[in-house]
Each structure stands twice: as C-alpha cells, then as structure tokens.
Design a protein that fits this description.
The complex is a heterodimer of chains A (327) and B (442). Chain A is mainly alpha-helical. Chain A contains 14 helices and two strands. The longest helix of chain A is centred in the middle third of the chain and has 26 residues, at 153-178. Chain B folds into two domains: 2-12 and 38-147, Immunoglobulin-like (Sandwich); 152-441, ABC transporter involved in vitamin B12 uptake, BtuC. Chain B has a four-stranded mixed β-sheet, with no helix packed on it. In chain B, strands 6-5-8-10 form a four-stranded antiparallel β-sheet, with no helix packed on it. Chain B is elongated. Classes of the chains: A mainly alpha (327), B alpha+beta (442). At the A-B interface, α4, α5, α6, α12 and α14 of A face α2, β6, α6, α11 and α13 of B. Chain A: This is Amino acid/amide ABC transporter membrane protein 2 (HAAT family).
Chain lengths: 327, 442
C-alpha cells in the first residue's frame, strides 16, 4: 500500500527546501522584470547560472571568501543585464524574449564546452566550494528539528541563508514598488509612451529593473547550488519556464505571489510525482513505467502554464487590473 | 593521472614532471574534474556512459595511439595503453564522433575502410546504447592514410552547412509564416519538427512500414498536426482576444508539455531512422552521402515550391497580404481565418519534413530534437527579418553555414554559440533583419 505519511512528509519538506527558496528568489526577480516592468525575460536561467558559476569559480579558482564570491556573482549578472539590455530594451517585447533565451543558452553552452574545462569543469560541473560558507555557520554541529524538518547544521544554515535572502528581497521589492520609482516602472508596463511623455527616461528605468531582477536571479543561482554541485545541465531553458509557471501561479505583479507560488509549486509537484511513482509501484497504473511516471510532472507543468495564462492570468494573488500583459 | 609520468618526453625532466604532477593534483583537488590531458582512461568517474575500444594491428596491441571523442558535453582525447585499450566517459546517451589520429600510428599503417566506400574510415560515429557502453574499434592495416587538407575541410564544412541551412529553412519558413500572419512567436514549433521525425520512427522503425510510405504518412500527419494546432488551440484563443504575449507563453507551455509527452511515449534515448547511419550510401563527393545529397535536393525542391506558391498563386498572394496587414486583407475580401489555417497546415508539413531531414542530419531521433534547433530557427528568422518568408530562407542558410564553418576555428561543442551571438549582434545593428522593413519592429 501507499505510505501516505511518508508521501506527505516528503512534500512538506519542500516548504523549507533551499530549492524552493532559490525558485522563489528567481521568481521574485522575474516579477520585477515581467510582472512590474513588463519585460519578457526568458533568460532567468542564465542569470542563475552566472550567479552560481560566478560564486563557484571565484571560490575555487581565485580562492575568494564567500562574501567576495557572492559579490562577484552579483557583478557578473549586472554585466550580463547590461549586455542584454543595451541592444534589446528599445525593441518590441518578443525580441527581448528571444534574445534573453539565446543569451542564457550561450552562457550554458560556454559552461558546458570543454574549451574552459579548467575553470568550469565542463559538463561535469564544479563542487567543493562550500568551505568558506560552511566556516561562518554559527549553528553548532548536530541534528535539529521535528518530524520531516530534521536537518544537520549545514542544511539548516543553507535554509536560513536562502530564506533570509528571500525575505530581504521581498522587503526590497515591496518598498521599491511603493516608491516613486515603482510607480514609474508600473507606468512603463501600462503605457511606455505616456511615461516618456512625462519626461522620464524609459530606457534607463527598464535597464535598472532588468539589473535588479537579474541580481535576484544570480542570488537565486547561488542558493540553488550551495547544497549541491553546480552542473550546467541544471540551467536549461526549462528552468526559466518553471519559474514562469511559479510566477503565473502566484501572480506576476505581486510580492508574495512568487514566494507562495514557489511553495505551492514544489509541494504539489513533489506530492504528485511521489504519488504517481508509488501508484506505479503498487500497480494502480499498469500501463506506465516508473520512468514514465517521472515525466508526467513536466507534462503537468506545461499544461498548468497554458491553463493559467488562458483562464487565470492574474494568478492566485494577482489583481486582474494589474495584468503584466494588457496589450 | 599518474600516467603522465610515463610518456617518454617527460622522463628526461624529473623535476618538471614533479612540478607538473603537483600542479595537476592541485588542479584535480580544486576542480575535481578531469583536465584535458591524455591517458588511456578519461573521464570515466564523472560520466555515466563510456565509449571504449582496443587498437590492434594483426592481433598485436598498439600503444600511444591518440583517439578523440567529440559530442554533446564531451570533447576529450585518450592515448591507448600497453594493451592497446582506451576508454572515454561521456555524459549523454547520444551519438559521439570517434576519431583516430593516424599520425600517431606506426609508419605505413592506416585505418582500413572495411566497406571500401567510406572516405574517412578513421572517423566513426558511436551511439551510446541501452547498456551505456559503446565499443568503437577501428580496422588497422597497411594502407593509404586519410588526410584532409584545410581547403578540403572548408569545402566539406561548406556542404555540411548548406545542407543544415536548407533543412533549417524548411523549419524557419513555417515559423516565419505563422508569425507573419498571426503575430505569434510559436515556441511549440520545435515540437512540430520533432513530430515529423518521431512519426517516421513510429511507422518506419516500430511498425516496419517501407520507408517512403512511412515518410508520406509522417508528412500527412504533420500537416494534420499543424491543422489541429490552429483548430484546437490558436483559433479559439484568437477569438477570445488573448494578447500576443500571453499566446507566446501558452506556446511555451505547449512546447514543454509536448516534449515530455514525446519522452513519455518514446523514452529518453536517441534512435536511428532507417539507413541513417549505414555507410553504403557514401560518395567520394566532399564527404557527402547520398542521403545528404537527397536531403539537399528535397529541401531545394520544396523551397522552390513554397516560393512559387507565395509569389504566383492566388492563395499565396492572399497569404502575403494577410502578413502585411490583416485588417486591410480582410477588408479586401480575403478570408483571413482560412488563410491562417492553410499557413498552419503548411507550417506543420514543412516543420515535419525539416524534422525528418534533421533526424538524418544529426543523425538520430530523440524527444527533444526539435527544441535543440528552435533557437537556431529563431536566429535564422530574426536574421532574415521576422515575418518575411524569403528572409527566413536567407537567414537559415547563413546560420547553417555559420554553424558548420565556425567549427574550423572554434571547438565543435561551441558551434551553436556563434550563431546565437550573431542573433544578438544583428538585433543590435539591424533589428528589422536583412529583408525586414523598419516599421515592423515598433
């Protein structure tokens, strides 16, 4: 029979998981791009890859301490945002979509190629960069927690760091969107020409939004790889599509939407895939193999994206008046 | 890693060797990845699968022969050990190119072509099968070495790139026509590409129909798929008044769902279409096989037919009119919905055909094969000018040539990077594309 307790426990673990924190952070960055400014960034996976590799390479190759490595990751993502923004922010939205997805793929292919294997580890990726981050862990060694939420000191440290970043990023976003800057940004989403007519430099505001969301993305990349190794195949375009699913689920132009969206997304995905895998094992779905069961979740994500956009574009928390895509 | 010490040159400088080893160990400790230096066993610990073999001359092992393996995620070389053995780990269940460096064979010895028709017997394909381990062995004997001059390589690459560009054009024209008539940047076009190849796999390999019949069925089903795409999804969305950007995101959801539905049914591995890897069709003409030549001829004929349709027929003119200005076209009595439906059927058929040819070009059919060229297709379409059919053609051929010719200069696993960089540069310098008009980019 199916062990429901274990299934629910595994799903509940996703609530605190660093992966959920990373996706929430990346989705928050995307909310600034897409939800508030109306920029169609399909290269969030590229920002995450640059953050992750910026951190890992500066730790391993140059021996930087953890805080300097984080600054390198942020700096690299700012440069990436400038490279992306200069040619495309003056163009129509779908051009930005194609360029950002292409640029993210360029980044991934550069990390995969053997030409720079000395620094990137090519397809095998990098590991062993946790040392300096582990050293500043204030939690004494041991295992803490209750029920499914029992982890050792490093796992707790990664979770606290990841979710701490999410909270800080959410507060920054909330404050910014209440500020005059936020009102200009939302104005650009609604009607670029009207904002331009008010004497605002639309191009610079868009660039600032692209950089801010990109920095959140690169921090998300670091949170994503801190508990594991960094491997280029983690940063495929599918990653960006997942983040869009989370954003659409929670509500694109909201602060809490991306965070709740990430939690709902991962808890339900974990429960669904765990349930289907067990159901195949106990023979409830005789026409399916366990490998096939693993693919069902991706099909589900695709279908959920389609249904959300068509039937509830504002997401769970969104306000229908604040739709990112009015045009 | 300790094998480095046994090469004859380094024996003379023990201190240098010691330093080198220290640096190597430090690098290994730091990166925990295999550096690109040669031993007989390369990257086996870090990769799930492996390509391996034994090099022997008349049963005697040959030591010190250089083998390179290139393909998705791996480009490494190994030197055979005292038993003539070599093995290179590879990360994906894909097809890898195995090359034996004939200059490392003893004097007067070469790789023999057992079929008598393969002009480059020292280069082989190895596809990682279900066991995850492919043996790849060469026939060694006395004979003529196979050397390709730089000039010959350029010509070889040119034809390879032309072939790729032509098949890309089939895919790109469909994408561009759909964009021109409906404004949709259709990410799910990639899944129409894969659909054609997968249907040939289903009918030609699984059901063992004769190949021409399988291809015919696949093309008809591809057109039906294009029709179904419009009828079931896009037309209702247009009627609902869904905007272009939401529609684009819907197409991304469709693409994701479609790709994993394919994987659900055909699995994650790469399978070959009939005759795709057989050597019996090779020619002496610049390393092309008859399959390559047929692929180019088919592409050219179909592209000419599309051009004739667009320029000379009533319906083609109506299509271009809808592309230019749907409202004006409707006002002049053109049935816009009917034109769009026909464009979708054409786009489905062209993408399916492009997918079949792509299955022979790669070679191999896999669930994500369409997505692999989606960005190159977008690059081609943007290069030529979004929404212009002939721009897509020119853009595709430039992208195809660029991708293949660039491997003369940069590593083969970076060849798509060049094309994507071109895409960004074009948008910077001439956002409307080569044939586009400035007003389109608004």
């Amino acid at each position: 029979m199916i062990d429901w307790i274990q299934l629910l426990g595994n799903a509940a673990q996703q609530i605190l998981s660093p992966v959920t924190a990373a996706y929430a952070l990346a989705a928050l960055g995307l909310a600034i791009h897409f939800g508030y400014t109306g920029l169609l960034n399909f290269g969030q996976a590229g920002f995450m890859a640059l953050g992750a590799y910026g951190y890992a390479i500066s730790t391993l190759t140059f021996g930087f301490p953890w805080w300097a490595a984080i600054l390198v990751g942020i700096g690299v993502s700012i440069i990436f945002a400038l490279i992306l923004g200069v040619p495309t922010l003056r163009l129509r939205a779908d051009y930005l979509a194609i360029v950002t997805i292409a640029a993210a793929e360029i980044a991934r292919l550069m990390f995969t190629t053997n030409t720079f294997v000395e620094y990137t580890g090519s397809a095998n990726g990098l590991q062993g960069y946790k040392g300096s981050f582990e050293d500043v862990n204030p939690i004494p060694a041991g295992t803490y927690g209750v029920g499914p939420f029992t982890y050792n000191e490093y796992d707790w440290w990664v979770r606290i760091f990841g979710w701490g970043l999410v909270i800080v990023a959410a507060l920054i976003t909330w404050r910014l969107m209440k500020s005059p800057w936020g009102r200009v940004i939302k104005g650009i989403r609604e009607d670029e020409d009207a904002v331009r007519a008010l004497g605002k430099n639309v191009y610079f505001y868009k660039m600032q939004a692209l950089i801010l969301g990109g920095v959140f993305g690169s921090l998300a990349g670091m949170v994503f790889v801190l508990p594991r190794a960094v491997v280029p195949s983690n940063f495929q375009p599918t990653l960006t599509f997942f983040i869009y699913a989370i954003l659409l689920l929670g509500g694109a132009a909201t602060v809490l939407g991306p965070i709740i969206g990430a939690i709902v997304f991962w808890v339900s995905l974990s429960f669904f895939s765990g349930f289907v895998a067990r159901a195949v094992e106990v023979g409830w779905l005789p026409f399916m193999s366990t490998v096939q069961a693993g693919q069902l979740q991706f099909i589900l994500v695709g279908v959920v994206i389609m249904l959300l956009v068509i039937f509830r574009p504002q997401g769970i928390f969104g306000n229908k008046k604040e739709l990112a895509f009015v045009k | 890693m300790a094998h480095a010490a046994t090469t004859p040159t380094s024996r003379r400088w023990p201190r240098l060797v010691a330093t080198l080893l220290a640096v190597l160990f430090a690098a290994v400790a730091l990166l925990s990845a295999s550096p690109a230096h040669a031993t007989s066993q390369v990257g086996l610990d870090d990769n799930e699968f492996q390509v391996s073999g034994i090099v022997r001359l008349d049963g005697e092992p040959l030591e010190g022969v250089r083998i390179t393996v290139e393909g998705p995620g791996q480009s490494a070389e190994a030197i055979t050990n005292a038993e003539g053995r070599w093995a290179i780990g590879v990360p994906e269940r894909e097809t890898y190119t195995v090359t034996l460096d004939e200059s490392t064979l003893p004097e007067g010895i070469a790789v023999i072509d057992e079929s008598g028709e393969n002009p480059t017997p020292n280069i082989r394909e190895a596809t990682v099968g279900p066991s995850g381990n492919v043996p790849s062995n060469f026939f060694i004997g006395e004979g003529q070495r196979n050397t390709t001059s730089v000039g010959g390589q350029i010509v070889d690459r040119f034809f390879l790139g032309l072939n790729f560009g032509l098949l890309l054009a089939l895919v790109a024209i469909g994408l561009s026509l759909v964009f021109g008539t409906t404004g949709l940047s259709n990410f799910a076009h990639a899944e129409l590409v894969a659909f054609g190849a997968i249907m040939v796999l289903v009918f030609g390999v699984f059901l063992e129909f004769p190949l021409p019949l399988a291809i015919l069925i696949a093309l008809i089903l591809s057109m039906a798929m294009g029709w179904a795409n419009d009828a079931a999804l896009w037309k209702p969305l247009r009627k609902r008044g869904v905007g272009l950007i939401p529609m684009m995101i819907v197409s991304i959801g469709l693409s994701l769902a479609g790709r994993y539905i394919y994987q659900f049914f055909i699995g994650g591995e790469t399978r070959q279409l009939p005759f795709a890897t057989s050597t019996q069709f090779s020619t002496d003409f610049f390393g092309l096989s008859w399959i390559d030549i047929a692929s180019m001829l088919i592409s050219i004929v179909v592209l000419l037919a599309v051009a004739y349709f667009l320029l000379r027929t009533r319906l083609g003119k109506a299509t271009r009119a809808v592309s230019d200005n749907p409202a004006l076209a409707a006002a002049s009595g053109i049935d816009v919905d009917r034109v769009i439906r026909i464009v979708w059927v054409m786009a489905g058929g062209l993408a399916g055909l492009g997918g079949i040819l792509w299955g022979y070009f790669r070679p191999g059919v896999s669930w994500d094969m369409g997505f692999q060229i989606l960005l190159l297709t977008f690059a081609a379409v943007v290069l030529g000018g979004l929404g212009t059919a002939f721009g897509a053609l020119i853009g595709s051929i430039i992208v195809g040539l660029f991708v293949e010719m660039s491997t003369l200069v940069i590593a083969a696993d970076m060849k798509y990077v060049g094309a994507l960089v071109v895409l960004i540069v074009v948008l910077l310098l001439r956002p409307q594309g080569l044939l586009g008009r400035k007003e389109r980019i608004g």
